[in-house]
Design brief:
single chain; 206 residues; mainly alpha
């Protein structure tokens, strides 16, 4: 089903905002998110290119989420592609600061941007990306703000055991990003849950 113009706009804007947030996080160079840490660890261990490992891990997570009736949609594909493109473009415009204080400022700025982007694109109800789908697959019984922390934390631990590095930014994502997304969604009156029956008609947003 083709999303309505409103939902399409929320998806596109949310993914661009999320991409900017990811770029800020990476430019701070204080540790990436747990999902990327896991992919990086697998890349180090296997020698396979990052983008291939990222694709395989993403497909596996989305498939596992589907077993819990969190089905992929057009937003799943758009999230992966548009966020990746946005990150590449924004990183070309940013440089990692030499001063630790400015790195910390970039890290702090990344969180509200990340939270807003995730809340908007999930609020479009067009399908979740890999990490978010894995978290939503367990909500209920575990609220997204905590299941997302578990997904990010598990990814960081797995990646670290496989040889990837973690930093204060990684810990911040694990502890703070899930609650921040939940807060953004509540402030915007958005429901993060995706349609669990792909045959059901998704009502348009008011």
């Amino acid at each position: 089903m083709i999303p309505s113009p409103r939902r399409t706009a929320m998806l596109l804007v949310g993914c661009v905002v999320l991409g900017v947030g990811v770029a800020l996080l990476l430019a701070a160079d204080l540790g990436s998110d747990g999902y990327s840490t896991f992919v990086n660890g697998l890349t180090i261990t296997t020698g396979v290119d990052f983008w291939i490992v990222n694709l395989v891990v993403g497909v596996v997570l989305v498939a596992l989420a589907a077993l819990r009736k969190v089905y992929p949609g057009v937003g799943t594909v758009v999230q992966v592609v548009l966020v990746g493109v946005t990150v590449s473009v924004v990183l070309d415009l940013l440089q990692t600061p030499d001063a630790l204080g400015w790195q910390a400022a970039l890290l702090a700025a990344a969180f509200p941007v990340l939270a807003l982007g995730i809340a908007l694109y999930l609020g479009s109800h067009t399908g979740a990306g890999p990490a978010e789908a894995a978290a939503l697959a367990w909500d209920p019984p575990v609220p997204f703000k905590w299941s997302y922390s578990v997904v990010q934390g598990g990814g960081a631990l797995g990646g670290w055991l496989l040889g990837a590095t973690v930093g204060v930014g990684t810990l911040a994502v694990i502890l703070l990003l899930g609650p921040a997304v939940d807060l953004a969604a509540r402030l915007l009156s958005l429901d993060l849950h995706q349609e669990r029956d792909p045959r059901a008609e998704q009502p348009d947003l008011a």
